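Re: [help] complex structure
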Amino acid sequence: MTGPLLRVRDLTATVTTRREVIQAVRGISFDINADEAVGFVGESGCGKSVTAKTLMRLAPEGASIGLGGSVAFWGQELLGLGEDEMRDLRGRRIAMVFQDPMTSLNPVMSIGAQMSDMLRRHLGLSVRDARARSVELLNLVGIPDPARRIDDFPHQFSGGQRQRVLIAIAISCEPDLLIADEPTTALDVTVQAQILRLLLRLREERGMALMLITHDFGVVAGMVDRVNVMYRGEIVEAGPVDDVFARPQHVYTRALLDAVPRLQGAGAVR
Amino acid sequence: MTRFVLGRLAWMAAILLGVSFVAFMLMRAIPGDFAIAAAGSQSVAPEVLATIRRDLGLDQPLMAQYLSWLGAALTGDFGKSFVTRQPVLGELLNRLAVTIQLTLLAAVIAAVMGVASGLAAARLRGATDWLVRLWNGLMLAVPNYVVATLIVLLFGLYFPEITVLGYTPFLESPLGNLASLLLPAFALALAVSVTIAENTRAAVLEVANQDFVMVARAKGLTPAAILLDYLMRNALTPVITAAGLKIAALLGGSILVETIFAIPGMGQYLFDSINSRDYPVIQAIVLVAAGIVVLVNTAIDIAYARVDARVQM
Amino acid sequence: MQDSAPVAAARKGAGITQGWLLLGVGLAMLAAMLVLTIFAPLVAPYNPSATSPDSLAPASAAHWLGTDSIGRDVLSRLIVGGRTTLLITVSAVLIALVAGLILGLAAGYMGGRTDEIIMRLLDVVFAFPVLLLAIAVVAALGPTVPNLILTIAIVYTPAMARVVRAPVLSVKQWDHVEAARSVGMSEIRLVLRHILPIVVSPILVATSLTLSQTIFTVTALSFLGLGPPPPDPNWGGMLSEARQFMELAPLTVVGPALAIVFATLTFIIIANGLREVLDVGSVR
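Output below.
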């Protein structure tokens, strides 16, 4: 394992659907070190989600992504990696939490089954061990009465609880890097803070790197060490989060900061 | 949930009642005398005719006749055939067994062909998708009896040594049974498989776009696991429901296919009894066939409601 | 991944163009059929009932599709037979359409008990497999042309009524309907001006689909011997009669088969074209 956890250089991504071709990411470079939390802030369409999916090499259904540049994970180049090897990496070394908890769980599988399948796939656990581990994980993310609820189905949980479950799934195989793509956007304001606190706690407990993606500057405050501001597929400003907050250089950064209601300032999440 | 089931069952009973009424009334609406048909010939002495009328209860008011027929039917007594003078029930059951074999085989063939081609079209896209859709579009325009006739023609022209007509009972030879039913079942299944294919394709395409499938991929699961647990489990539910409702089409179509392939099923029985004006048989067949369709549809409705409750939330 | 707005619009546009294409092809096919059948006596080269000693002949200049077992010209029989088939089909579906419209509008608009009663009665008819019911009724009443038309109309009315009822139920709540009602617009005008237009699109599609299904039912009935009585030739009957000697003269089977498929395909293509053009929820 050489170098930083993640080293991205001149990454470009061209998304081709059946009807159109979009240059979603136009040459960005950044690092993420082990045990570091980095925020990616920008409005919808700025390319931050595509960047995240690119790291996992997940093209949306019905589209293909043409990639350029370099993505090195612990020194290993990901962009040319075969699909089989990529599959071994996904969930095991790099994991992702998505935006909408209401649609991110399979409605016809129990929560336990959706956690176990991953554990058994990557860690080779037996059915019984996987189940036990799943109960532990549910407990860890704060689901009450996990031993009974493990057999429940997604529709029996609230939005906030489903997001906890999804986080539990994401960290279940002890990944080195957790990517959280707008993890709180679809949740109630009160629940948002809870989820962010959970992510913070898990990160501290496990020494996991975190890539937090959001359109809301208020969310990254207190959560990350550094922040990258994205606009139209490029990183327009980067730096330690406190610096960027205090002395925004780019016009766009200032606009984003202004969009945050003052009541929810830098100290909100601490 | 229980309330729904009970409601559905009550509804089913009501429909069956209506069906039985229609089945009964149809036969009474015939021009010409019911009793004459029972006698089997036009020239029959008036006293004999009067006796027949009394025996069959034809001098009773219509509703009373209906109720007594219904009461008997519920115990399995459909009266005696005008042609064979034997109880209708025995022959009906024999024929029903054959038709059920044919229909079940057709259902299996339709399901396998339909799901496979729909899945292939949805996942492989491109040329496969185009071909499958073209085939589907064309096959919808070819009625099952045309397919059946063309199959018999094809075999008659190019493989005259193979017998495609006729039926071998299962107890006589299981393999022969399957062989005799294979082609007719295929003819019956073709149109239905096309509908299933279109449904499957649409369902798979829609499910593949869902977030939880992306999550499954992000979890690093194998393509097989994703296909089975995440895609198919969700896609097949609406497909199965729609497919189940096609039982009606299969039963109706079997009448034609049985005639063409000389399979002694209920369809043939209906056809023969219409030609010989064997009214008790016609009534029984209409009631039983429609009854089966209603039963199956109700069962599917109930089954679907159970699954739907989970998916809707 | 959701389409962006301009992409969705483009995709819809492409669908509509495709729709017009299908519609064009379908209507052309329909026109061809109509011309042939309306002018059947003029177009048919032979009298369809004229027998000849030249039986089971293969295709030739004299007989484009050969002859059947008693020497009748297949092509002429197909053309004249098409007339009867289409007559029954179109009449039956028109009746089903009108009946379905009335019942569906009544059920959907008046709602409540009327709706329940109507739909339950229709459900009893709907519960029968189409062919089974048609066979039973025709067997009971006798296979004359009017009976056939009536039977098929009855069999397809419930489906039509359902298609009409659905949009009516959803439209009833719309604001402009409420507004019109509050201004005191008479009920009938309300139905005609506000509700009817909504119903038109799905009804058009349903009608073409029903036409294609009716071709199947009519030809199936005549295949079983329950169709229009002789001497009227009809496609189903021709197919059935041909079975006896079909290895000797495949055209006697292939001819009617192609005719049936052509007619069915015409209405299916029209239905699909209408679906795209009128943008009635379709499957992509």
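Chain B has a mean pLDDT of 84.
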